[in-house]
């Protein structure tokens, strides 16, 4: 883990059912062939994610294989933040393979280049991602990035359990494991 500068570590929180829906939606938008992503928004005074803004809703031409996000998308994002009285707390994007490390491009050109911003990366175009420890978390510091992998992701990003989230996981499990027959 790189530890660049000693900054307070906010613990960004997201409800389990919202996380599962987010991952499903990102996987769908990726079409299993290109990166996709979203800004995670919340109240100015907290770290709970209350709203999600998908990159391609803000900038319809940004999903180019990688992500090429234009100024017009940031303008729309800024308007959403002002109108809803929220701020960008974190962002998440998908990588094609099993790796969740930042690419050189990710590190050099973050979606939000501000110390304290949290960038999350999900593997396999999001396929099968159901828990935070499957992600990597990259906390922007003044001199670079602090990187959190596997169980350390919980130091900065927590998916808190919800009844709806547990039911979603159970339903998904049953669909995969139960051989239903039609008569």
UniProtKB/TrEMBL annotation:
Protein name as it appears in the record: JAB domain-containing protein
């Amino acid at each position: 883990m790189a530890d660049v500068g000693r900054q307070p570590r906010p613990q960004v929180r997201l409800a389990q059912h919202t996380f599962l829906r987010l991952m499903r939606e990102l996987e769908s938008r990726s079409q299993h062939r290109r990166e996709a992503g979203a800004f995670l928004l919340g109240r100015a005074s907290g770290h709970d994610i209350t709203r999600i803004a998908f990159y391609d809703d803000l900038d319809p031409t940004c999903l180019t294989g990688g992500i090429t996000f234009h100024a017009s998308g940031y303008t729309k994002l800024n308007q959403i933040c002002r109108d809803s009285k929220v701020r960008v707390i974190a962002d998440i994007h998908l990588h094609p393979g099993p790796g969740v490390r930042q690419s050189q491009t990710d590190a050099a050109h973050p979606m939000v280049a501000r110390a304290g911003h949290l960038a999350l990366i999900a593997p396999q175009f999001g396929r099968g991602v159901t828990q935070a420890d499957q992600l990597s978390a990259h906390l922007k510091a003044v001199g670079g990035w602090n990187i959190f992998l596997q169980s350390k992701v919980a130091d900065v990003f927590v998916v808190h359990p919800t009844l709806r989230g547990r039911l979603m996981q159970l339903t998904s499990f049953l669909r995969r494991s139960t051989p239903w027959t039609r008569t």
